[in-house]
Amino acid sequence: MAQKQVSCDCGKVIRKKTDDELVTAVQEHARQVHSMDLKREEVLSMAEVVAD
Ligand SMILES: [Zn+2]
Predict the structure, then answer these.
(1) Phi, psi dihedral angles at 43 (to 5 degrees)
(2) Phi/psi zone of residue 2: left (φ > 0), alpha (ψ -120 to 50 degrees), beta?
(3) What spacing in Å lies between the alpha carbon of 1 and ligand 1's midpoint?
(4) How many degrees, rounded to 5, is the angle at CA 5 between CA 34 and CA 12?
(5) How far is the CA of 52 from the centre of ligand 1 (A)?
(6) SS3 of 47, please?
(7) Distance from the alpha carbon of residue 10 to the mean position of ligand 1, in angstroms
(8) DSSP string, 1-35
(9) pLDDT digits (tens, 9 = 90+) for 2-32
(10) Percentage of the chain exceeding pLDDT 70
(11) What is the model's pLDDT at position 36?
(12) Distance from Cα 24 to the centre of ligand 1, integer Å
């Protein structure tokens, strides 16, 4: 099953199985580490699909 991942500018890679989990995890990371509020569409536009 394919997963999606976002590679943050800081080098952190976040990989999840569902869009919802990915969006939540990336939003949390962005808020905690970068004090940024990302929209769902912004997270998904940064995401790439990876094969297992
Ligand atoms: Zn980061």
Answers:
(1) -60, -45
(2) beta
(3) 26
(4) 40
(5) 23
(6) coil
(7) 4
(8) --EEEEE-TTS-EEEESSHHHHHHHHHHHHHHHH-
(9) 899 999 999 999 999 999 999 999 999 999 9
(10) 100
(11) 97
(12) 14
pLDDT of residue 44: 97
Per-residue pLDDT, 51: 86
Of 24, 6, 28, 23, the C-alpha closest to 15 is 6
How far apart are the CA of 6 and the centre of ligand 1, in A? 10
Residue type at position 6: V
- pLDDT of 1: 76
Q: How remote is the CA of residue 33 from the centroid of ligand 1, in Å?
A: 6
Give SS3 for 48. strand
